[in-house]
Design brief:
alpha+beta, 20-stranded antiparallel beta sheet
């Protein structure tokens, strides 16, 4: 905290700059941008967290800590509404670099004087102040309403007049964000990177002991296609951005990663096409489930070719493993045929040009139910594999085969095949009791197969849950993003408490109760969504999750975080203390 202003930027800028050469007068392009949205914006977000968590004194506590750190006077010269920015620039040859940090400070000399600095600044000429450290110097110069910081004097002398433009809008979207402008990286550096990757792959592409010629050929093709795809993607990249936001509009917080591609590039067109598809299994994404997962993607020719190369490697490995088992000739032949048929179904599904699946897991103290579905090709062929597999099991173990019921029933064109395992078959008493409490007298696993659909259900009321899912497979209360994984933490922790040891139940139930105080807002989600010429992946923590995290912090921080006496006492700490 002691060097919260100047040295925060130095901490970012110096590690970057320490390995680069000083820039000359060449034209430089900005490659890396780091932006902090500003002091006021951060405190507003912190206030939201405090309000949600029942800690109204959280901003006050942070303010008091700033005062105790001895930077209160320095803050007087800070424009708290403007962002802080660090920029790394590079020339077109990839040889000359410059790192610049920007702080919205109107009087850099007064700020440095007010900070508890270990050294005194010296005049380096051209209006530049030099702060000498044992291993290097830091240079600072006033540019209008901004202080520019770098470990190279030339970088602070030659600085843009409006650093807000250098932030590239990152400060408007995130409290803290970083962007790599890949398209600004010199072509020579990108080419060198790709050559190094290709060389590394080629150097490691040797036939391994025990690997057959077919396995090696399949693996080689898979890796070579992956390298070619990566080359295309890297050359089509525009920028990569990572940011953190405390979002007052939704009372949530999120970490977001975005990838943008050059407009009209092959990768951009491919991504736009992939995002057009909608899942046919929206009804399987139950709003009251503890966990849900869904994804739908349109595949292009390159995707299909890469996936088929992967499947070829998997097929070769599977057949080789069967050979190693030393099975009788007739069993080995059947095993190879069944494995081959299953992989044929996967390859035919890939040929359809679409991946589409969804699943929901419901967890209650006395219930466990999983339901999922996906698009396939040649459902009849997959069904034949299952029937032949059960037939073979029956020859070797009639008792195990009796647990299967093929063609148990049909619903809406989907044929059900059921595996029922009596709970009393479980030897360990405690496990038998816990599982029986969740699923009943038997664990049912239902496989549903249609011509182009595959379903799976297991747990309590598995067949009834699957029928309901089939009937509502295309429905949804609202449009779904192309891909999302969601966890309702209240249900998850309640379920965990129901099966936990006695000494763990209380803590789990306490956190679950906090989460339940924000009904329907206790989720952690990972969501993939299209954006113009790109894609966004967002990790979101909803209001209830922030509340639970805040309450945990409150228990650690005590009354100061509640806005109580400790916080008030800190507020009265005199400004400008240097070693408190």
């Amino acid at each position: 905290m002691k060097r919260i202003l100047l040295w925060t930027l130095v901490a970012v800028a110096v590690p970057i700059a320490s390995w680069v050469r000083p820039a000359d007068a060449k034209d430089l392009k900005q490659v890396v941008t780091v932006s902090f949205s500003g002091y006021d914006d951060l405190m507003q977000g912190v206030g939201m967290i405090g309000k949600i968590a029942g800690m109204p004194g959280l901003p006050l506590m942070l303010e008091a800590q700033v005062q105790q750190a001895g930077v209160g006077e320095a803050l007087k010269g800070l424009d708290k509404k403007l962002p802080w920015v660090v920029a790394l620039k590079i020339d077109e040859d990839g040889e000359e670099f410059a790192v610049q940090g920007f702080l919205p400070i109107r009087d850099v000399k007064s700020m440095i004087k007010a900070l508890p600095m270990p050294v005194e600044p010296e005049d380096a000429g051209d209006g530049v102040l030099e702060l000498k450290a044992p291993d290097r110097s830091i240079y600072v110069k006033q540019h209008g309403a901004w202080a520019v910081v770098s470990d190279k004097k030339a970088a602070v002398v030659d600085a843009p007049g409006d650093p807000v433009k250098a932030a590239g809008g990152i400060h408007e979207k995130y409290h803290l964000g970083a962007r790599v402008s890949v398209n600004n990286i010199p072509e020579a550096l990108r080419r060198k990177f790709l050559e190094m990757v290709a060389f590394s792959v080629q150097a490691g592409l040797q036939q391994m002991p025990g690997e057959s010629a077919e396995q090696f050929a399949a693996r080689s093709k898979m890796l070579q296609q992956a390298v070619e795809q990566m080359k295309t993607t890297v050359n089509d990249l525009d920028a990569l951005t990572l940011g953190v936001k405390l979002d007052e509009a939704t009372s949530s917080a999120y970490l977001e990663f975005t990838t943008t591609l050059l407009a009209d590039s092959a990768s951009a067109k491919k991504l736009a096409k992939a995002g057009e598809v909608r899942t046919q299994f929206a009804g399987l994404v139950a709003p009251d489930a503890a966990m849900t997962l869904h994804a739908a993607q349109q595949l292009d020719a390159a995707d299909i070719a890469q996936a088929k190369a992967n499947m070829a490697a998997l097929r070769a490995n599977a057949l080789a493993e069967i050979e190693k088992q030393g099975l009788p000739e007739d069993q080995a032949k059947l095993a190879k045929q069944l494995a081959g048929d299953m992989m044929d179904v996967v390859e035919k599904t890939l040929d359809s040009g679409k991946l589409d699946f969804a699943a929901s897991l419901k967890l209650k103290p006395k219930a466990f139910t999983l339901v999922g579905g996906m698009q396939i090709a040649e459902g009849g062929k997959l069904e034949s594999v299952i029937k032949r597999l059960v037939e073979q099991v029956g020859k070797e173990n009639p008792g195990a085969a009796s647990l299967f019921k093929l063609n148990a029933e049909e619903h809406d064109g989907v044929r059900f095949h059921v595996l029922s395992v009596p709970i009393n078959m479980i030897e360990e008493a405690d496990a038998r009791e816990k599982l029986g409490g969740l699923v009943g007298d038997k664990l049912d696993v239902v496989i549903g197969i249609g011509d182009t659909k595959l379903y799976l259900a297991m747990g309590r009321d598995a067949a009834a849950s699957l029928k309901k899912a089939i009937e509502s497979r295309g429905s949804s209360a609202k449009p779904l993003p192309p891909a999302e994984f969601s966890v309702a933490l209240a249900d998850l922790l309640q379920f965990a408490a129901s099966v936990a040891e006695d000494n763990q139940k209380q803590n789990l139930q306490m956190v679950a109760k906090i989460l339940q105080s924000s009904p329907g807002k206790d989720h952690v989600k990972i969501t993939g969504s299209p954006i113009p010429n790109g894609v966004r992946v967002r990790l979101t923590a909803e209001e209830g999750v922030l509340k639970a995290a805040g309450m945990a912090g409150m228990m650690v921080g005590g009354p100061a975080m509640m806005g109580g006496p400790a916080a008030k006492s800190k507020k009265k700490t005199p400004r400008g203390g240097d070693d408190q």
